[in-house]
Amino acid sequence: MKIGELAKRSGLSAHTIRYYERIGLLPYADRDQSSQRDYDASILIWIKFLGRLKTTGMPIREMLHYAALRERGVGTEAERCALLEQHRERVRAHVVDLQACLLVLDTKIAGYSGTEQRMKDHDPVLPERRRKPAGTRQASAR
């Protein structure tokens, strides 16, 4: 498939595909008779995997390291697995942090949804905030 078709099917721009190829995240594409890139459909699986790594926050240098190991083929499985296991632990820690943040948001939202009832039960009239008239502030001692 040509780069335009790959871009459409992968969700990446043609520029990003060329960039990923240039830095080594994507293998160089075969060329057709007119020297245009001609990608095999299997590249879509790799691009989707790279997208997952990116979404989970893997730094590009680690993605490049993984891609280089993958390119070397058999014999790098243990190192690739270790790299993914380390990343998985960082992702799990991040998920725990996000869950804690979500709990805070849920608590805050629940507090807002109960505001009207709390007002009726305890403070039927909101106290009015009063501002001092302009020019009545005390000068600070220097």
Quick rundown:
With 142 residues, the chain is mainly α. It contains six helices and two strands, in the order H-H-E-E-H-H-H-H.
Radius of gyration: 28 Å
Q: Number of helical segments? A: 6
Order of helices and strands: HHEEHHHH
- Name the strands of the widest sheet in spatial order: 1-2
Biggest sheet features: 2 strands, antiparallel
End-to-end CA span: 75 Å
Mean pLDDT, to the nearest integer, reads: 87
Helix content: 55-70%
Strand content: under 5%
Given the helix and strand composition, which structural class is it? mainly alpha
Structure description:
This protein is an all-alpha fold and 142 residues long. The chain is 63% helix and 3% strand. It is built from 6 helices and 2 strands, in the order ααββαααα. The protein has helices at 3-10, 14-23, 43-55, 60-72, 77-113, 115-122, and strands at residues 30-31, 37-38. Strands 1-2 form a two-stranded antiparallel ribbon. 8% of the residues are buried. The model has no long low-confidence stretch (mean pLDDT 87).
Keywords:
single chain; 142 residues; mainly alpha; two-stranded antiparallel ribbon; elongated
Topology:
Elements: H1 3-10, H2 14-23, E1 30-31, E2 37-38, H3 43-55, H4 60-72, H5 77-113, H6 115-122
Antiparallel strand pairs: 1-2
